[in-house]
Amino acid sequence: MENIPYKIYLTEDELPKAWYNLRSAMKTKPAPLLNPGTHEPMSAADLAPVFCDELIAQELDNDTPYFEIPKEIYDFYKMYRPSPLVRAYCLEKAMDTPAHIYYKFEGNNTSGSHKLNSAIAQAYYAKKQGLKGVTTETGAGQWGTALSMACSYFQLDCKVFMVKVSYEQKPFRREVMRVYGADVTPSPSETTNVGKKILEAHPGTTGSLGCAISEAVEVAVSNPGYRYVLGSVLNQVLLHQSVIGLETEAALKKYDIVPDIIIGCAGGGSNLGGLISPFMRDKIEGKLNARIVAVEPASCPSFTRGVYAYDFCDTGMVCPLAKMYTLGSNFIPAPNHAGGLRYHGMSPVLSQLYDDGLMEAVSVPQTEVFKAAEAFARVEGILPAPESSHAIKVAMDEAAKCRETGEAKNIVFGLTGTGYFDLVAYEKFHNGVMDDYIPTDAELQASFDGLPKF
Amino acid sequence: MENIPYKIYLTEDELPKAWYNLRSAMKTKPAPLLNPGTHEPMSAADLAPVFCDELIAQELDNDTPYFEIPKEIYDFYKMYRPSPLVRAYCLEKAMDTPAHIYYKFEGNNTSGSHKLNSAIAQAYYAKKQGLKGVTTETGAGQWGTALSMACSYFQLDCKVFMVKVSYEQKPFRREVMRVYGADVTPSPSETTNVGKKILEAHPGTTGSLGCAISEAVEVAVSNPGYRYVLGSVLNQVLLHQSVIGLETEAALKKYDIVPDIIIGCAGGGSNLGGLISPFMRDKIEGKLNARIVAVEPASCPSFTRGVYAYDFCDTGMVCPLAKMYTLGSNFIPAPNHAGGLRYHGMSPVLSQLYDDGLMEAVSVPQTEVFKAAEAFARVEGILPAPESSHAIKVAMDEAAKCRETGEAKNIVFGLTGTGYFDLVAYEKFHNGVMDDYIPTDAELQASFDGLPKF
Description:
Largest interface: A-B, 43 and 43 residues
Largest sheet of chain A: 7 strands, mixed
Low-confidence stretches of chain A: none
Shape of chain A: globular
CATH class of the largest domain in chain A: Alpha Beta
CATH architecture of the largest domain in chain A: 3-Layer(aba) Sandwich
Number of helices of chain A: 18
Oligomer: homodimer
Structural class of chain A: alpha/beta
Radius of gyration of chain A: 21 Å
Distance between the termini of chain A: 59 Å
Strand content of chain A: 15-25%
Number of domains of chain A: 2
Strand order of the largest sheet of chain A: 1-4-5-15-10-11-14
């Protein structure tokens, strides 16, 4: 066996000192956010009532390649980073594949996912600006948990609007947020105007991410000292998540490993965008010839069946317009347990890269994903989150192809989190009652018809 | 700030190559297990129908200092070990204490605790003996999960009897075991004679650990190719868990840190016995002057209020007699959420060390434990298991004393696991409905009266 350890750990000194801004390497920059009223690009001043000032600067900067990680964030990172790059020796052996499989594991923190990388950054800038607190929405709960932890650390108030159905079905996620002192409200609620309107129009509704976003934004803009924060899609989030890719790059370089395929799950794109950032730069610059693959659920296939167009980021249509691969902001994904992948749109950065032919995308049905997840758990130990398991599924498919061809490809994928709060989904899988709904062309067309026209 | 990192990681090469047998250093050896019928010491032949042969050899060996870790177990360890020794900089800062606080974190694996260290060893020896499978009981579920993972890795059948009340209240734990292919039966069940008898005598009972042990033992001895395995109390388990202490010792030595106080929670003693093993050896040999502190729940205070006597390990009285600090095998602890600490007895090794004055013990009420747990989570990020939080509570008390005296003591404690499956308990804590029941002297006396007499 080679001299590569099971887990490649960087030392604390090797933790990246700066985030990398992939936009700086892109020949075609991502399209700007547009004001939904004027259709003009959003300026920093337009965004100031909603977002923190320094985060806006990061959001709008397509040119600066590196942003130094402030010491306060760096110190927090050191509590759970560098995260390990794991050589999946046991999976390789179980699959009898000549492929070398590596995964960057982001689940070893209490939020259970990579979301903490951006949550702590956003909380820091809010604190630095002298704010009282931040508001956000959460669906599956990973982002809300991560933000609660970050706000607790900086002693910021944290108001989370949690999609009502998740609030009721995932009481444990809610309870973790309470441990960290967050104020968690089921959405839609009577605490906001938009919530009241929705409850009037749809009594008994169990809520949606779009509605929760609208409530969180309303509370942020109508309370002095508050701003709204978001855990994916935005350029700033991909910037913070570049720490994943930079660590992966450093770990691979230690052993002179050149990736042949890089795979990540993609909902809003925060993990994938972070993981690939240095590799995509090298690919753009002609220094790396790796395939880069986004994996999405067949139930919510923005890349593989969506259109590249300006669309609203939320169903309430209060947020700016973003040019992205989208299923339309009216698209309601079927109940799919990978809650973190149930988003109608996609990061504008990743959308542009995909449109430029620099990335591939594939969609996979849920039952296949859980089969891969269980097979992985049994040999690699880690119980993966349903979101992460989309990447596992495709990594295993690629490793199986290597078994056929005899190629010893280096496959690298992002294992974004753990599935400890997703056991209702695993139970459905075990009991054979998991749904595999795939939207029809007619459904998608109806949703596309609602895209903003201009 | 010193040059000590937030997390001291050993390299894979520094993972201990052998387990350390603390009994070899003890001047007074732990008392032998006795046959409940004859009151003679149990021989290897007596134990053979119940336990695996190599584990029996480890159980009975008070002299061999080191047992080499077989390659198959070592390879598995490399998937999640070495575990980090964390310097709790954030907790120190939040408490404004001059103390240096370190914790050995064993929660970064899917079983969520240190139990996996012994589970994989016991599964390996069962496989090596050519057995079909193993049986066990689980209360809180950590041990059952760990054993399921280990059996899945070695493709052994795994039959878990889970205390019925836990089976019903902790469906997610059960589901994790199903991911790993274990057969989980709520206990008492109709599948065993002892289960049927208990159900007849106590219809509607929600079960107990003692009953689950009796069912698991019955299935092991009455099915060819099966043996029974146990996650704590036994000498062999402490031997396997010495990997915790050996890694801790190696990590401290890297930075020339000499511990002043070593703290661990104690139920059956598996974590504490493993953590302290090399340090207790040095203490016995006069090379280390550290205090060693066991922390137990006030609801189940074997060390602090029990007696040192021969007692049954199970309530069904089918297991051998062990000399240990015990509350009596009839003692039923009040519902305390630290399920892993609800055991009437204590490891014979630790019992002898405590009796020899080499260890201290302290008991703490549950609400205080959860207060410490939440304070810890908010600054150190990790959501701790209720069991582990007993150690946190006392470590924080000691750090607070250092604040008063100005001493920069080195406090080391074992953080055995995460609390992701204990959120019902956290919810009770948040809602102010947590019980703090402490047994009365009369209750304990009644239980002592039932101790075997000879």
